[in-house]
Design brief:
The complex is a heterodimer. By secondary structure, chain A is α+β, with helices and mostly antiparallel strands. Chain A is built from 15 helices and 16 strands. Chain A has 2 domains: 180 residues, no CATH class; 288 residues, no CATH class. In chain A, the strands form 4 sheets. In chain A, strands 3-4-12-8-11-9 form a 6-stranded mixed barrel. A two-stranded antiparallel sheet of chain A has the order 2-14. Classes of the chains: A alpha+beta, B alpha/beta. Bound molecules: adenosine-5'-triphosphate and magnesium ion (MG).
Chain lengths: 484, 242
């Protein structure tokens, strides 16, 4: 009987119910599209970024092996943790030199403020002008690799060795503002904090595609063990390198950086400055390279494991294609004693932007639900008004408040859920349109969206019906039935 | 036939003279005020089981107000209303709903049928909220009021008289002790009025207790007693000669 009544109510008020269903469908199509895209977008952005270019970290072989395989600190273990900064230019001599968009040597070190606060400092090139071995003039530096940083003040420039850029968190903690002075003293000995970790939370805008300097797994940077590092003096390019005791420098804050990640807690100086503070003349802990690459395919993956396993023809194809692995291989050829690795966890760098994108989608989802809720609220009120005589009557016939409310609610819920199913399906369509239009690939329907949407819908329907239900409960049969 | 109630005319202001324990309904000094206005003032009377009482009075005299109070849809401002010995003037709305459901059948002047349900389903709604739906029984009730052939028509497809009879079928489907009808013939032509009156008479003969509000002296005279209200006062209780 109850079901019969519900069905007939819906049929009776079909225009209103249709409106309710449509409102819900609209809201839930948006929500389902956004939720599906949101849950799938991580993959999408990854692929997107890989298509733009890989980021390659070049590190001394010893450092990488030890830390990667055994989790040891390279410098502490007495293994070469440094490479000559001048080697960096060689990445422009490889077969795919033209695809190398930007690069900089990085020197990570640990320093201390006069108050004893340890600070992770990274030295890098800033708009570094250089003549390449090929005779070409080129400007490169971290300012291009971190173009998304928000800067209050101005970027350091090449040769500005008395300047420092301070991450916003660190600046707040130390009470620094642009123009202030800060003294940094290089520390010796192994450190606890790995400044090279910085990149793991960098918000890289899709196009920039840069990643962290020394993929967080390594910890090569900061040993003050001068003796071991000193061996790096055998530089192929002949530039002088030397290791001496760390020193202090008083630097002027040129800019406050908002990077949205660990870098907010670091300081950035010119490479020369970092070398002076750490006493590592002419050295770097890694080289970061941004290159345009061809997305990996099967061949690239096989080659990445072992290029020697390829047939001569495959090898040639691979070598002459701008795969990230081919570029890495060529960098290793060009610079002896290093390991070049594409940074695998691309997700790290765009984590933040992903989060923001997803937050935006969440907002849209919530807004569409709120909108649907408001619409539903009006429609349900109108529906209940129209049915007030009927509701008064069933109350007079002995229906409890709960039974009367249930009668109304269930018809709304059923209608709403029907609309929700419709909207969900439409939302899948929207998601595909967004996927193809924005990310150039299909969006997989995430099963999680269904229960999520169902819960959201029920909530919205209940909340939307609440005002009407309240007036329904206040409805007194005597008043409705006797035509007052 | 338990209709042999003493038929003394009771003056308005005096309390019900004989609060017999077996009275089905016992009103005592019932007053209902809407702000300054007393829709009912100091009403007292008793209705015995099986009795047929009609209530008359000019428009605005408080007839519907009185029916609402007896029908557990409203509470008096003061005074007590005993239904089968239970004081319904002190019950919670929830309890009143239950009493109304279990003991009272309501017939409305405007029929109040659910427009999207068939005649049969309208009767079944009352069953549903009372206990269990029994289609055969519902059909029987319609048959009683001569509407078996119209069971599957929607209210809009029925004449006013037919709708009123559906309404009566619905009122009696749960075998209530007390049937309250507020102007059951008010909207009907003479022909339909006669049919409805015949049904009421039948119900009375079966032992149902009836309270019927009406403007029509002829309808009123079918009852054993007529309670006449005026401006919320009980003006007189008249015994009708059979
Ligand atoms: N909810 C209310 N609020 C205020 N006044 C009310 C309310 N209900 C009834 N009244 C007033 O109480 C008085 C009695 O109303 P009631 O409906 O009982 O009259 P009635 O005898 O049924 O009249 P009619 O024959 O026209 O149906 C009227 O003056 C009416 O205006
Ligand atoms: Mg009335």
């Amino acid at each position: 009987m109850f079901i019969r009544m519900i069905i007939k109510v819906i049929a009776r008020q079909r225009t209103k119910m249709l409106m309710i269903a449509l409102t819900v469908a609209l809201g839930s199509s948006l929500a389902s599209a956004m939720l599906n895209v949101m849950l799938d977008v991580g993959d999408k952005v990854n692929r997107e970024l890989k298509a733009y270019g890989a980021n390659i970290t070049v590190q001394p072989k010893g450092a990488l092996l030890l830390s990667d395989l055994y989790g040891l600190d390279a410098a502490a273990a007495g293994v070469d943790a440094y490479l000559p900064a001048s080697e960096a230019a060689k990445v422009k001599t490889i077969f795919w030199a033209y695809n190398v968009v930007d690069f900089t040597p990085l020197l990570s070190l640990q320093a201390e403020t006069p108050s004893g606060r340890e600070v992770a400092v990274t030295g890098a090139w800033f708009s570094h002008q250089q003549s390449l071995p090929t005779g070409e003039e080129l400007q490169s530096g971290i300012d291009n690799l971190r173009s998304w940083w928000e800067i209050e003040g101005s970027w350091l420039v090449d040769g500005e060795d008395d300047g420092v850029m301070v991450g916003v968190t660190l600046a707040e903690e130390l009470g620094l503002e642009v123009g202030d002075q800060i003294t940094l003293s290089g520390l010796t000995g192994a450190t606890t904090d790995d400044p090279a970790d910085s990149g793991t939370a960098d918000p890289a805008p899709a196009g920039t595609g840069t990643t962290d300097p020394a993929s967080g797994t390594t910890d090569p940077a900061v040993s003050g063990d001068a003796g071991t590092a000193g061996t790096a003096a055998t530089t192929t390019s002949g530039e002088a390198t030397a290791v001496s005791a760390p020193t202090s420098r008083t630097l002027t804050v040129r800019a406050i950086i908002t990077a949205g990640g660990d870098e907010d807690n670091q300081a950035f100086v010119t490479l020369a400055c970092a070398q002076a503070i750490s006493g590592k003349t002419g050295l770097a802990t890694s080289i970061e390279v941004s290159a345009l690459t061809t997305p990996d395919n099967d061949l690239a993956r096989r080659a990445a494991q072992n290029p020697k396993s390829l047939s001569a023809k495959d090898y040639e194809t691979w070598y002459c294609t701008a795969y990230a692995s081919a570029i890495c291989y060529q960098i290793e050829e060009a610079i002896p004693g290093v390991v070049a690795k594409p940074v695998r966890q691309v997700a790290a760098s765009e984590g933040a932007i992903l989060e923001k994108t997803q937050l935006l989608m969440l907002f849209i989802t919530i807004l569409s639900m709120v909108g649907a809720g408001l619409g539903i609220s009006n429609l349900v009120s109108a529906s209940v008004m129209e049915r007030s005589a009927e509701i008064g009557l069933i109350k007079a016939l002995g229906a409890s408040d709960a039974a009367a409310a249930w009668l109304v609610l269930l018809s709304i819920l059923l209608t709403g859920l029907a609309g929700g199913v419709l909207g969900y399906l439409a939302g899948l369509g929207f998601a595909q349109i967004i996927g193809l239009g924005v990310f150039g690939s299909q969006i997989a329907a995430a099963p999680l969206v269904i229960p999520l949407l169902a819960v959201l819908l029920v909530l919205v329907l209940l909340l939307g019906s609440l005002p009407a239900l309240r007036s329904l409960l206040r409805l007194r049969p005597a008043e409705v039935l006797h035509g007052r | 036939m338990p209709s042999a109630t003493p038929t003394t005319a009771t003056p308005a202001a005096t309390p019900a003279s004989k609060p017999t324990s077996q009275a089905l309904l016992q009103l005592d000094a019932v007053t209902k005020s809407y702000g300054d206005l007393d829709a009912l003032r100091d009403i007292s009377f008793a209705v015995q089981p099986g009795e047929w009482v009609s209530i008359m009075g000019p428009s605005g005299s408080g007839k519907t107000t009185l029916m609402n109070i007896i029908g557990c849809m409203d509470k008096p401002t003061s005074g007590s209303v005993l239904l089968s010995g239970q004081d319904i003037s002190r019950e919670s709305p929830r309890a009143l709903t239950a009493i109304r459901r279990d003991h009272i059948g309501l017939v409305f002047q405007q029929f109040h049928l659910i427009a999207y349900l068939s005649a049969l389903e309208n009767v079944m709604v009352a069953q549903y909220y009372h206990s269990l739906v029994d289609e055969a029984e519902a059909l029987q009730a319609l048959e009683r009021v001569g509407l078996a052939k119209r069971a599957n028509h929607l209210p809009a497809q029925l004449s006013g008289g037919e709708q009123q009879r559906v309404c009566i079928a619905r009122a009696l489907i749960n075998r209530p002790q007390l049937i309250l009808a507020d102007e059951p013939t008010g909207n009907l032509d003479e022909d339909n009025e006669l049919k409805v009156m015949a049904i009421l008479r039948e119900l009375h003969d079966e032992g149902h207790t009836l309270i019927v509000v009406t403007h029509d002296p002829e309808v009123a005279s079918a009852a054993q007693r007529t309670i006449i209200l005026e401006h919320g006062h009980l003006k007189e209780i008249r015994n009708n000669q059979p």
